[in-house]
Amino acid sequence: MKPYLWSLFKFLAYIAIIVFFLFPILWIFSMSFQTNDTILQKVPSIFFTPTFKNYIGLWEGEISIEGFATMYVFFKQNLINSLILSVFSVLVTLILGVPAAYAFARYKFKGGEDIAFTLLSFRFAPALLIIIPLNLYFTKIGLYDSYFALVWVYQLITLPLLLWIVRGYFEDISVDIENAYRLDGHSWLKSFFYISIPLARPGIAASALLCFIYAWNNFVFALILGSSSIQPVTVGALAFITASAIPYGLIACGIVVSVLPTLILALFIQKYLVQGLSLGAVKG
Amino acid sequence: MSYLQINNLKKSFKDDHVLKDVNISIEKGEFFVVFGPSGSGKTVLLRLISGIMFQDNGNIQMDGKNINQLNPEERDISMAFQNFALYPHMDAFENIASPLRANKSDDETIDKKVKEVSSLLKIEHVLTHMPKELSNGQKQRTSLARSLISKPSVVLLDDPLRNVDAKIRFEMRLELPKILKEFNTTVIYITQDYREAMALGDRIGVLYDGKFNDIEKPRQVYNNPKSLTSAKLFGDPTINNFTTNVQINNGSININIGDEKFIGKNSNQNINGKYIVGIRPEDVQLSNKKSDNSIKVEFRTKTPLNLKIVYLIKFLNGVEMLCSVSENESLSIDENKELFLNIDYSKIHLFDSNNEETIF
């Protein structure tokens, strides 16, 4: 094939891929600036007069849709709940998971592999299997409808994930680097904080981001174990669909807003995801 | 009492008894080389001394005090690792400064000392580089600088020249003793290269089969090895050995290898019986001319080795032997003509055929 034909082909292929993946997102983004009428017109158009009605309605919790009664949504509270739940879940996971991953990577102790595998096995069982008994327990001990309970249950999803990813990163760090640091006269704890953690940072960052996404997207735990006062956006979005109306613009707007925190976090964390830091310090 | 005293040190990994009974006493300021084949437990020994690993049994004393229970950071021992073990997220300066940061020196002192040691090791120009930007030679110097900067009582060097190329290895072999003298510290140095051991060591310990077979001055290990094992390890190409009948009678030696008879002068005590005869490849001469006591041999093959040419020759009865000849000498040898071998009988070694211990 001639070079210019080849590059033309490549260019078209890129365009196809971009359209395939980005079109739904762009479409939802544009929907969030439209009223139900323009969204639902017979021949959809990409030309419309943008309106911020949906965003304002979402923020104020009150929106009137032409031809229907005024709707009340608790989206702002849902968003705050999502943030609280995800941030605390990831924090608890980091505090518990990183030292645990280090222990599993560095020390061979009796039953160590079994414990690590048991933690992973939490992810085998579908959430629906354990949700009913959990609900009964939590009601009994008074944890139903509390942030604490949800953060706790979220650990079932996030902790094994982080543990197994970060463990691999710790295992990849040459023990001699830590040994050398200790021989320099630094304590064990210092070698953990100043050598092991910085070197495993790409792994910790990547898995923390994944944990955040999993926690953010969780639906079923929050649906069963809490009332509307602590429910996150995933559950809160259900309220948009009522018997009287399906406000597509509002739903699109909710999606855009609820994707934003994860997107910002991903961009922020990107620089820590850069690999290859440990290359070349130890003779391969 | 020696400065570093190690008694009955044992370490095993499951059923693998790596160190069975290690005993050494090392004086202050001594350059002690641990020499042994790979897998002989050299690195394990250093790890036990440094405290990275703990022994199953035995005692390590430094300056009269037991250090068995101390953590690595409490021992005043530093180590340069075979794989350099630099901190990849710190630049060369911080890597070298690490021991000073640990003892909380102020920035001014750190700056001064790092400059000092890095100029000694000729790496001042790369102090701002990250480890991945350094060449292997520079990495090795950085790791050496780090192990020396805090002037520890004992410096452990785990085959530091293993992972650098031949040119740098040669340079460092010349430079290292000079640098280490400046720091006036006790050094334990690991190597698998007997020439490096002989070039650097005040004394050499030959570690084999979980214990030290020989602890001697460099020449001594080469000339009078304690056993066949030491003799085999110390020399390249390795010593020729034949198990055979040997007689020494009033200054003349009589060796039978197959139906080939070797007769020469040797002034050791009179013996008669089955022994292992060791002949170093460098203690023989090969030529095209027949002379007194020379033996006719056949040429098999030859290969160059460090300014020498190693010949593999065969006696008429089929027994093979290695001979090393200087490059100059080899020019005068035409292997297509008849070849004759002369052995320097005064330099041969004799080992007990049962326990392989040296007789002379």
Question: Could you explain the architecture of this structure?
Answer:
- The complex is a heterodimer of chains A (284) and B (360).
- Chain A is mainly alpha-helical.
- Chain A contains 13 helices and two strands; from the N terminus they run αααββαααααααααα.
- Chain A has helices spanning 3-31, 36-39, 53-60, 75-106, 112-121, 127-140, 147-172, 175-183, 188-199, 201-217, 220-225, 233-236, 248-269; strands at 62-64, 70-72.
- Chain A has a two-stranded antiparallel sheet with strand order 1-2.
- The radius of gyration of chain A is 24 Å and the shape is globular.
- Chain A starts with a helix and ends in a 15-residue tail after the last helix.
- Residues 276-284 of chain A have low confidence and may be disordered.
- In chain B, α2 packs across α3 (107-120) and α2 (92-102) runs parallel beside α4 (136-148).
- Chain B is 25% helix and 36% strand.
- The model of chain B has no long low-confidence stretch (mean pLDDT 89).
- Classes of the chains: A mainly alpha (284), B alpha+beta (360).
- Chains A and B meet through α8 and α9 of A and β6, α2 and α4 of B.
Average pLDDT confidence of chain A is 86
CATH classification class of the largest domain in chain A: Mainly Alpha
* CATH fold annotation of the largest domain in chain B: Rossmann fold
Percent range of helical residues of chain B: 10-25%
**Main pleated-sheet profile of chain B:** 6 strands, mixed
Shape of chain A: globular
Q: Enter the CATH topology name of the largest domain in chain A.
A: MetI-like fold
Helical stretch tally of chain A: 13
> In the residues of chain B, how many domains can be counted?
2
Total strands of chain A: the figure is: 2
Identify the CATH class of the largest domain in chain B. Answer: Alpha Beta
Strand content of chain B is 35-45%
Per CATH, the superfamily of the largest domain in chain A is MetI-like
Q: What is the strand arrangement across the widest sheet of chain A?
A: 1-2
- Anisotropy-based shape of chain B: elongated
Based on helices, strands and strand pairing, what is the structural class of chain B? alpha+beta
How much of the sequence of chain A is in beta strands? under 5%
What does the largest sheet of chain A look like? 2 strands, antiparallel
DSSP strand count of chain B: 20
